[in-house]
Design brief:
The protein is of the alpha/beta class. The protein has a single domain, classed as Rossmann fold (3-Layer(aba) Sandwich). The protein contains 7 helices and 12 strands. Strands 2-1-3-4-12-11 form a 6-stranded mixed β-sheet. Bound molecules: glutamine (GLN). Glutamine binds next to helix 2 and strand 8.
Length: 253
């Protein structure tokens, strides 16, 4: 039986707006597809065997938690970079997404050094960028929507050759200006979308499972799943994001 080993980084520190639900979705869908799954939670200072990791998941975190884990991550950066270059799958949300880049400069002007694995940098702005968001995700042809919830001060700017995860249809995305959201580098996906993201975007969940399997040359034989509930949640989130009342509230945030 195919098996995936997921390392869940710093679950006690990086878990905002339902990020833990991403783990539940990965585990449950893996089970439904007949894939064995092992989850290894890692706390700061804990050991990570990158040779034994197919998918690394990191949730979002407030600036203080981000700073705390950044130091721990820095010591692992060369191992992590090597694994990423070899094709390990990484899924990083918001604060963790920022840490994959060069730096995150907080609203107090403090610079938190990043892993420098993905060509991006982030600087906090005055107004938080908050609300339900919808993007047109270019991981697939034709592109398909992803829905999630964003709440960040950081404005992220991608390097010229970095592919965004998608184009913002509703919401702010990377920086509220250039209509890009998230980033894709090799099998790394970074995004501002919390929510939890994966339960209502099952296609992305399966995409991550497939990448994690292919890393160790395991094929993905998807089972035919009934996604009607997930799709209803997806559609409801799109409606909510597009409603005038929601837009009024989120511009006040
Ligand atoms: N501290 C970061 C910011 O506000 C990340 C917040 C988050 O992970 N939601 O930009």
């Amino acid at each position: 039986m195919a098996e995936i080993i997921i390392y869940h980084l710093y679950p006690a520190h990086l878990n905002l707006y339902g990020d833990r639900g991403n783990m539940l979705a990965l585990c449950r869908r893996a089970e439904w597809h007949g894939i064995g799954i092992k989850v290894v939670p890692v706390q700061p200072g804990g050991s990570i065997d990158f040779a034994n990791c197919d998918l690394l998941f990191m949730g979002g975190g407030q600036d203080s938690d981000q700073k705390l884990v950044a130091g721990d991550l820095k010591g692992r950066s060369s191992d992590l970079r090597r694994a990423v270059e070899e094709g390990m799958a990484v899924f990083a949300v918001c604060g963790s997404y920022q840490l994959l880049g060069r730096y995150y400069k907080t609203s107090r002007g403090e610079k938190i050094g990043g892993l420098e694995i993905v060509d991006l940098y982030t600087e906090a702005g005055q107004k938080r960028l908050t609300g339900n968001a919808v993007i047109n995700c270019s991981l697939w042809e034709p592109p398909a929507t992803l829905v999630g919830f964003e709440n960040h001060a950081g404005r992220t700017y991608l390097g010229p050759n970095l592919q965004p995860l998608g184009e913002v249809l509703i919401g702010y995305g990377n920086n509220g200006a250039d209509k890009t959201e998230g980033a894709v580098y090799k099998n790394v996906i970074g995004t501002y979308l919390h929510g939890s993201l994966l339960p209502k975007n099952p296609r992305l969940t399966d995409f991550l499972l497939e990448k994690a399997l292919s890393y160790r040359n395991q094929g993905f034989k998807p089972a035919k799943l009934d996604d009607s509930l997930e799709n209803r949640a997806h559609e409801a989130a799109i409606r909510l994001a597009g409603s005038r009342r929601h837009r009024r509230l989120s511009t006040r945030a």
